[in-house]
């Protein structure tokens, strides 16, 4: 393709802003594989000359692509197409599998997982009290856990357990994280059998501390899960923010209607 034909892709008199046209072209090049994962995007000067546009036009286009999560910029090195990350499957069946393994002693493959956990006793806020069905101010155990799959951070969770349920038990010890089988297995170890799990899933952009903890690129949306676990009629856990990068996970639900 000649330089002239490349320049004709950018219409300075069109209805669409020039920087958006340039972003469209680069986005198409990334989608086609011309610029594959991890490969460098041409320099500002190269793009200016190739498309006959101003430096600020190039910078605006790159900002747009960064905000979309397609590229990352490393100061002093340049701009690169984001690497493809392994996708973690989060299935609704995971709770049943964890409970079955906890009650039968069956194996769970958690060898690659590790966690950074911090626990503290706090009074329940109105939100937490409402989820747990207790009075505001009731003592609860707050658990902040950052989960890793190998070296890659995968999930950040903030959850709460009634203190009268777990105080003095292994569940209240952060050094025991991650439990193979998660909270279902942890509670089963102290004789609390989870019988129901309610979840609400939303999407939002990350907060600054989540961006740092989960090492996400600008423009990466988060999946957030609010979860309540029950043992019979009693709420035994409230997770107000299970945060998972949207580019590293897929949620899978099976809904039997028969």
UniProtKB/TrEMBL annotation:
Domain HTH gntR-type: 16-84
A GO molecular-function descriptor: DNA-binding transcription factor activity
Protein name: Transcriptional regulator, GntR family
Keyword set, alphabetical order: DNA-binding, Transcription, Transcription regulation
Transit peptide among keywords: no
InterPro entries reported in the protein's UniProt record: Bact_HTH_transcr_reg (IPR050679), Chorismate_lyase_/UTRA_dom_sf (IPR028978), Tscrpt_reg_HTH_GntR (IPR000524), UTRA (IPR011663), WH-like_DNA-bd_sf (IPR036388), WH_DNA-bd_sf (IPR036390)
One GO process term, biological-process aspect: negative regulation of DNA-templated transcription
Organism: Cryptosporangium aurantiacum
PANTHER family for the chain: GNTR-FAMILY TRANSCRIPTIONAL REGULATOR, MANNOSYL-D-GLYCERATE TRANSPORT/METABOLISM SYSTEM REPRESSOR MNGR-RELATED
Signal peptide stretch: none
